[in-house]
Amino acid sequence: MKVFIIVLLFIVMTIVIIGAVFAGMYNRLVKARISCDEAFSTMDVYMKKRSDLIPNLVEAVKSYTAYEAGTLEKVIAARNAGASALTMGEMLREEQQISGALHQISALAEGYPDLKANENYRELMSQLKTSEEDIAQSRKYYNAVVREYNALTMTVPTNLIAGMFGFEKREMFEAHEEELEMSDVTF
Q: CA angle at residue 109 from 125 to 173, to 5 degrees?
């Protein structure tokens, strides 16, 4: 009888330890997913702040470049598409289009010295540069937490728990060349 109790206690202790390890790994995955969501939310706030600058910037540029309507329409279309993005992947792609469109405005302004001298335009571009820097910093943080989360979902033994509970790999936010150039706004 004594041996039976010892074996039973051993089995119960083993189950408790395995359960605790399982719960710990699950909780790590949940915390990592929450960190990804928070990092994306922070980046989203900065992207929306920048998006709010676009109509004012377009208006400032429009008065100087009446015949450059195509470029301005691209910027507005990119902004509107970004606002209607539903998934994280769509939002990331639309964000890249907005950055490219803003780069076009910056390049367009190079041909208009009066526009570059306009105080309203200069202030908007300064705010835009600050927004771009904020987005770049939040993007770095987002990518760092996504990298950590993805590592958890792909390495043994947490990948087993991730698979059982639907923890899927997250998409990294990669900057394209025109976005990197946009952060160098000049006056």
A: 55
- Which residue did the predictor score with more confidence, 102 or 34? 34
Which amino acid does the sequence have at 165? F
How far is it, in rounded angstroms, from Cα 140 to Cα 146? 10
Q: Which of 22, 108, 5, 18 lies closest to 60 in space, CA to CA?
A: 108
Cβ partners under 8 Å of residue 152, min gap 6: 28, 29, 32, 158, 159, 162, 167
First-to-last alpha carbon distance for the chain, in angstroms, is: 87
What is the C-alpha to C-alpha distance for residues 111 and 108, in angstroms, rounded to an integer? 6
Q: Which domains does the chain have, with CATH numbers?
A: 2-182 (1.20.1440.20)
Contact indicator for 109, 115 with CB cutoff of 8 Å: yes
Percent of the chain topping pLDDT 90 = 47
Q: In this structure, which long-range contacts are made by residues 89-96, counting pairs with CB atoms below 8 Å and at least 24 apart in sequence?
A: 89/171, 91/44, 91/47, 92/171, 92/173, 95/47, 95/173, 96/175, 96/176, 96/179
